[in-house]
Amino acid sequence: MANQNEQFKKIVSHCKEYGFIFQSSEVYDGLSAVYDYGPYGVQLKNNIKSYWWKSMVQMHENIVGIDASIFMHPKTWKASGHVDAFNDPLIDNKDSKKRYRADVLVEEYVEKIENKVKKEITKARKRFGETFDEAMYKETNPRVKGYMDKMETINTRLATSMSNSDLDDIKSLIEELEIACPVSGSKNWTEVRQFNLMFSTQLGTIAGEEGKLYLRPETAQGIFVNFLNVQKTARQKIPFGIAQIGKAFRNEIVARQFIFRMREFEQMEMQFFVRPGEEMKWYAYWKEARIKWHKTLTPDEKLRFHDHENLAHYANAATDIQFEFPFGFRELEGIHSRTDFDLSSHQELSGRKIQYFDAELKENYVPYVVETSIGCDRMFLSVMSNCLIEDIVPDADGKETTRTVLKLPPALAPIKCAVLPLLKNDERMTNAARDIINKLKFSFECYYEEKDGIGRRYRRQDAIGTPFCVTVDHQTLEDQTVTIRERDSLAQERVSIEDVERIVSEKVDMKKLLQA
Ligand code: ATP
């Protein structure tokens, strides 16, 4: 655990030191759970968004995009159920005065038991070696079986009381499990209360409830209310999808863990409209497609599905793709079968028909929806967790040294190629380097740097994940060749200036990720 915490701290400080992410309004001591992306952060984030957008929109004839407004008619949120039900249960510790999400306190308790199971399994695997059968061990070892049963009982009870909004039972569960406040260590809790997560503001000069607007807590509703506009203008037939990337806002009760849980964040959502009765087929399809997308960036063992026991008011099946963040497995993306709940509710509240005529079935119906919803910021954090590495490399004298390197997939790297004149005082070198950049910049993002020794400049590029460094030296002036250094292998090759664009372009092309 200590190690994982260390890794998390390193990611946070690396993001700040190298211009990826800053605390919002830092000069005023910051605004809690709101963050700004810096020069390299915005590039990396844009590349993640582009990879998602291309995977969805460019790669599918039957998925189109939109960009809806953050403000929507207030009735939208009545119809969607957010005004009445977008709540989290909160609880306060009377001694520390700290506020918690009651369900998360229970989930963290379960996670501790899960960690004990993991430890037992690791020990047993060592003891039994090759012949170890994990499934059998979980069933037969009395201690582990006891842990597993306990987890299941707690999970089922939490799911039931969450579904029934039984706040008293959640409080009882916290008491029965003797959960203590991590800050004060006391079990002196208030009652559990519901807390609505939507931010509101006022429209124009209209005072009171009439003019009350919400900042959207999810991008999905902009897609639902535009369903017919898009279907007709893009001439789409069911099944088809609408994709969108945009900001969402949630007044989270506890907003810790850096960009994992923010009050202003970005979602990448796709709603896929299908025939009623075919939603489970498409739910299975999108589960498969989305995990495959993640696996192009993330090792298999850091990903898992977590099926929901506590279904949201609109869903008939739901799963999370969880990623192993430095603080444990947590939701990265949600895949939900949302039935016809949203379209039907908008139809009812607006009084307008929102239906699709299926020419094959010769029938009108309200389509069913399967949604994939991923937080762009959480994806950013998962990429950082995967790629920020310390490795041992030889220094200029051949001695082993530790370097910090961000091994980003080249297509996602903020800078694709740094061009470095060996000597900053030699105008012929600096001019040659500028000339190279002036050619390359039409194809990809470049970076010019002349300050400090070449070794330090390489290290700085490693730290921001630049896949290639091109160095202009004395020989360049004679024969128009440069050295090109590859970030991961550290291999340096002498190539003609003319070849640089091709070499870098091939490696940084997003096609590689899309074809994987
Ligand atoms: P959680 O259980 O962690 O609060 P959720 O189930 O409420 O998440 P969804 O409503 O399914 O999340 O939202 C879809 C995605 O949006 C999530 O998978 C997550 O990646 C992202 N997301 C949700 N809330 C936040 C937040 N406060 N900060 C950053 N990303 C978020």
Write up what this structure looks like:
- The protein is an alpha+beta fold and 516 residues long.
- The protein has three domains: 2-86 and 197-384, Bira Bifunctional Protein, Domain 2 (BirA Bifunctional Protein, domain 2); 90-193, no CATH class; 408-514, Anticodon-binding domain (Rossmann fold), CATH 3.40.50.800.
- It is 41% helix and 25% strand.
- It is built from 18 helices and 23 strands.
- Strands 3-9-10-16-13-12-11 form a seven-stranded mixed beta sheet, sandwiched between helices. A five-stranded mixed beta sheet has the order 20-19-21-22-23, with helices on both faces.
- Helix 14 (427-440) links the parallel strand 19 and strand 20 (446-448).
- The model has no long low-confidence stretch (mean pLDDT 94).
- Bound molecules: adenosine-5'-triphosphate.
- Residues 218, 250, 252, 261-262, 265, 267, 331-334, 373-375, 377-378 line the site of adenosine-5'-triphosphate.
- Adenosine-5'-triphosphate binds at residues 218, 250, 252, 261-262, 265, 267, 331-334, 373-375, 377-378.
List keywords for this structure.
Rossmann fold; 516 residues; single chain; 3 domains; alpha+beta; binds adenosine-5'-triphosphate; BirA Bifunctional Protein, domain 2; globular; 41% helix; 7-stranded mixed beta sheet; 5-stranded mixed beta sheet; 18 helices
Give the arrangement of secondary structure elements.
Blueprint lengths: L1 H16 L3 E3 L11 E3 L1 H20 L4 E3 L9 H5 L2 H4 L1 E6 L6 E3 H27 L5 H7 L1 H22 L3 H10 L16 E4 L3 E3 L9 E3 L5 H6 L1 H7 L6 E10 L14 E11 L4 H17 L7 E5 L9 E9 L2 E12 L1 H10 L5 E3 L4 E3 L2 E8 H12 E7 L5 E7 L10 E5 L5 H14 L5 E3 L5 H11 L3 E5 L1 H6 L1 E6 L5 E5 H12 L2 H5 L1
Parallel strand pairs: 3-9, 19-20, 19-21
Antiparallel strand pairs: 1-2, 4-5, 4-6, 7-8, 9-10, 10-16, 11-12, 12-13, 13-16, 14-15, 17-18, 21-22, 22-23
Helix pairs in contact: 2-13, 5-7, 5-8, 6-7, 7-8
The structure holds adenosine-5'-triphosphate.
The site of adenosine-5'-triphosphate (ATP) has 16 residues, from strand 10, strand 13, strand 16 and helix 13.
